[in-house]
Amino acid sequence: MKFLTALSLLFASYGVANAYNNCTHTCRVLVTEDGVEWGAENNDWCIIDQSLCVKEEDKNQCFSFPNYLCCNECNVVLEDEEGKWGYENNRWCGIKDTCTKQAEPEPKPEKKEFCAKHIITSMYTADPAPLIVDDTLYIYTTHDEDVLINNFYTMRDWYVFSTKDMVNWTNHGPILSLDDITWADDRAWAPQTIERNGKYYFYYPAHKIDGGMAVGVAIGDSPVGPFKDIGEPLVYQDDWIDFDPTVFIDDDGQAYLYFGNPQLRYVLLNEDMVSYNEEVGIVDVELTVEGFGEGNNNPTSYDEGPFFYKRNGIYYMLFSGFRKGYESEYIGYATSTSPTGPWKYGGILMEEHEDKTFTNHSSIVEFNGHTYFFFHTGDLPDGGDFHRSVAYIEFEYNEDGSINPITNNLGKC
Ligand code: FUB
After folding, report:
1. How far is CA 227 from the centre of its chain?
2. How far, in Å, from the CA of 30 to the mean position of ligand 1?
3. Where is this site: Important for catalytic activity, responsible for pKa modulation of the active site Glu and correct orientation of both the proton donor and substrate (predicted)?
């Protein structure tokens, strides 16, 4: 046979079989010659030592240890001339040389603990709303006066605080006061500022003389003012609903102004930012439990303090609300794929402050690679319902853009 002839020639030229190596990874006998079984490896003949071969019926056995199973782990218990041995499930097992240490289970990333901090402790502030200009974060706030009239909200002006590092804060206020607004006489409540074409638009709610609540707007040349009111309310319907404005300009240039307690409403701002699309008018958002969670209000948990923004194509609406069984506000959020809803309830962002203060009011901003949740609490000395203080805490979004509840750990961390 041609093959045997070749083999004989091979043997002839090399003389004896033991000039060949033992096969190390094949047990397939190609030729048996004078009781010697030959296989082939690496383009050369090799001699098969059957004692090293795994029998068909012993497939699970360890190649190097024909009568033993292969270890699952690589923990060497014993080493002798045959090789390395492990001990698993009450029996010895062979450890292949190719055995690589199984990767240690990935340590679970430790849940980062962030610490809440006040932005200012020398005065009472509430209702924070952020604006980033260049390398600076500005936080616009309301101001709870030290001395209360009728033990109720006593709020007559607005402030802005700036920081570049979240440590050092500069107070630029007051930036606007009820005294500067001809049509308003009370309730300098939760504002927000936005920039467009180099101008800064400060949206604020206030009580209209002889009327209800209204949303006004004042214009400034810089984020810290001075701001000049346009001289009349931007939104006024002679009710007590239209306050707590939040403003956002979408990628297509359309600006939205949401507001309202306990009805969430919006208008489409015109390019000039001081008037709105009258044809669309003032739109009531349909408040559903699917959108705003179940609660004490109509029948959802939405109450007030909307904060509207967009991240990675998702629109977010933070809000202050009442959950069933609670008499102070929690912060919840809803998301949508469109700026006007429908909204999908996302859950609790911050639980009620319970006995500390009846309200809360939130906003979120990404600054210098970190994400911050701003809120207010009653945690300062003599703090309470009408003596509140703005604080913030860092947090991280989940992969899908959802946000886990955030704990107010002021003073505990
Ligand atoms: O600060 C006055 C009012 O209390 C705000 O407008 C509401 O959001 C609530 O925080």
Report:
1. 34
2. 89
3. 244
